[in-house]
Amino acid sequence: MDSRQGHPEPDSESPPVAASSPRSPKLKASSKLNRWSMARALRSGVKIIDRPINAPHRQATTEESDRKTSAVDGDDVAAGKSIYLVSDGTGWTAEHSVNAALGQFEDRLVNRGCSVNTHLFSWVEDEEKLLEIINQAAKQKAMCFYTLANPSMSKSAKEACDQLGVLSVDILGPIIEGIASHLGVSPSGLTRGAPGRVKTLNDAYFKRIEAIEFTIKQDDGTLPENLGKADIILVGVSRTGKTPLSTYIAQKGYKVANVPFVMGVEPPKTLFEVEPRKVFALTIQLVVLQAIRRTRAKTLGVDTEGENRYSGFDLVRKELDFASKIYEKNPGWAVIGNNNNSYVTNKAIEETAAVILRLYHDSSDSSTSVPCISKRF
Amino acid sequence: MDSRQGHPEPDSESPPVAASSPRSPKLKASSKLNRWSMARALRSGVKIIDRPINAPHRQATTEESDRKTSAVDGDDVAAGKSIYLVSDGTGWTAEHSVNAALGQFEDRLVNRGCSVNTHLFSWVEDEEKLLEIINQAAKQKAMCFYTLANPSMSKSAKEACDQLGVLSVDILGPIIEGIASHLGVSPSGLTRGAPGRVKTLNDAYFKRIEAIEFTIKQDDGTLPENLGKADIILVGVSRTGKTPLSTYIAQKGYKVANVPFVMGVEPPKTLFEVEPRKVFALTIQLVVLQAIRRTRAKTLGVDTEGENRYSGFDLVRKELDFASKIYEKNPGWAVIGNNNNSYVTNKAIEETAAVILRLYHDSSDSSTSVPCISKRF
C-alpha cells in the first residue's frame, strides 16, 4: 500500500488560476450533486452497477486530442485515478484518513488492477499555492481532500474546487466544528507552523522520545535486566513481528521490550518476574510463519537445505510448540493469535498494535463496561 | 499530549439503551442545531464570547443531585469534557484526526488548564456494543466521533446519537463517499476484521518490515558500511532527534540510517560517498539543545559539573559549530533547521518527518510545479 512512484509530468503551459475557466465544463454543480447522491446511495446499501472505471475521462481526453496534453491531463488505465491531499501542516491526517477509506475499495484496487494515485501536498500555507494545486487537480481530473486550519484558506479551497468542478471533501473542518461546539470554545485557526501555536517540547514529548529510545535499546532480547521498566513486553518466535510492533507502539509513548523465543534457549528469568498483564505472547499459523521465514531467508540469502533450516516445516513447528508450552505455563500472559483469532497472522502492524493496546488498557483498569483507551489532553 | 489516565467509573445502574430516555432533555435536536450553527459561525471567523466551560453540565449535575451519580455522569472541571471515539477497526484514524483537530484548541487546553478526555473504543463490530457505548456517552455528556465501515452500523450510530442528544460526527463516511463517487465504485462495507478483506501480507508489508528492521540496525551510526543501502540518512549532534525521527519515517516504508556527529570524531567515509540528496542534516537552536540535553542528563544521572559537561553551554556550542562546518562542506545536503526555519527546534517528530519527506520526494523528482509526495495504490 505504500509503494512510491514518480510525479506526473506537469503541464508547463497551464494558465494561471485566476484567468482559467473550468477545463471540464460537463462537471457542473448539478452533475456533482448527482455524483454525491450516488455516493450516498452506495453508502446506504443500494447496489449500483459499477460504471467502467475511467471511461468518461478517456472520452474527454479523446475530445481534446487536438490540444497539447501532458501526463497530468485526464487519466488513463495505466496512470489510474488521482486523489489530491492538501494540508497546511504535515498532511498526515489527510493521508491517514484517505488510506483508511481506500481500504473500502481494496478489492477493486488490488484484485482488479485498477490503481489510485495519491498526491500529498504539505505545508500549503498561502492562497496562491493552494489555487495552483487545485488548478492542477482540475486538469488532472483529480478529486481533492483538504485539512486547512485557517478558515479563510478552507473557504478558498471549497470555492475554487466548486468553481473548477473538482470534487472536494473537507476532512478536518467538521471535526473542528464538532469539538468547538462541544467545548464551547473557538478554534485558533492557526496552522501547525504558525508562531502562535503552543510549543511541543513538553513532558509528553520527552516521554515519547524516551519510550522510543528505550524500545530500540531493548530490541531482540537485549538488556533483559531492564524488562521491569517496560510498559509492554512482546514475546514470540522469530518472525512473529515483534520488532515492527514494538517500534509502532513506542511511537504512541509506551516503553516496549521484546524477547525472542528460540528453540531450546531458556528465556531470561526477569521475564517471569514482571507483571504478567504486561506480557503479550505472539503466535502465528504454522504455514504463514513458514512463508514469512522463506521470504526472509531469501532476503538474507542464508537458508540451507534440510529439515533443520530456518523455514523448514519441522523446525518451525517445533519452535511454535516450544513457545506454546511456555505460554501455557504463564496463563496471565495474553496470547495474541490463538482461538482462531489469529491476530498476528495476516494482520497489519497497526491492527495487532490496536488489539494489544486495548487489552493492555483493559487489564490495567477494567472498570468500564466496554474496554477503551483513555487519554487526557 | 499523550499522557494516559485511568478509566472513569461506570454507572453500574445504567439502563439498557432501548429502554432509556435521554438523560439531558435540554439537548434536543433544536438545541443541537443551535450548537452546530454556532460552530459554523466560529469556523467562518465570527468571534463569540466563550461561555464558561462545563457550566451547563455542572448545573445539570446539581439538578440531578437526588439521583445516584458516578464519575462518568456529567463533567466537572477536574474530570474535563469527554470525547468518545468509536471504531469497528483499530480506531487509529479517529484518534489521529481528533488529535489533529484538538491542536486547534491547545491554547485553551494547555494554557488555561481545561482538559479533554478521549476514550477510544476499537473493534466495535456489533450493534449491541455500539449502543452500549453511545448510551454511556449520553450519560457522560460526551460527544461521539465514529469510523464505521459497515453502513448499517454507521446509520445506527447516527440514529442513536441523535435520539440521545449526543453530538456526533461521522469521520470516515464523507471520505468514503467522496472516493466512491470519484472512482464510480461501491465501497465494500467490510470492517478491517472481516474475512473478506484483502490480506495484508503483500510486498508492501514485507518492504515496510524490512525498512523498520534496517532502520533499527543502523541506529546511532552502527554499520556505516550499509549507508549506501539507506533511502534517507539523518546526521546531527546528540539530541537533535535522529532516533525518533528515523523510526517514525521507517514506519512509512523508508530505510533510514542515522549518523551522530560527535565533537572531534571524523564521520564515516561512506557518508560522503552516498547521493547528497539522501542526506538530511539536523540542526537546532543552541539554547533549545542545551535544555534538551539538561533533561536528558538528569534522566541518565550522568551530567557532571564544569564547562565540558554534556549540557554545558561551551561544549554544546562547539559541537554545533563542528557539525555546521561539515554541513557547509557538503552543500548537497539539506540542512533542516537553518535560515530561521528551525524545523527541528520545538517541532514534533511528525512535523520534521513531513519536512524531510517532502524535500526527499521533491529532490528525487522535481517535475511538478508544487512539490508533493506521490503514491500508487
Automatic annotation (TrEMBL), chains A, B:
Biased composition (Basic and acidic residues): 1-10, 60-70
Keyword Transferase set for record: yes
Pfam family, one: Kinase-PPPase
Region (Disordered): 1-32, 50-73
Source taxon at top rank: Eukaryota
UniProt protein name: Uncharacterized protein
Record keyword DNA-binding present: no
Keyword terms of this UniProt record: Kinase, Nucleotide-binding, Serine/threonine-protein kinase, Transferase
Organism for this UniProt entry: Brassica napus (Rape)
Compositionally skewed regions (Low complexity) per UniProt: 14-24
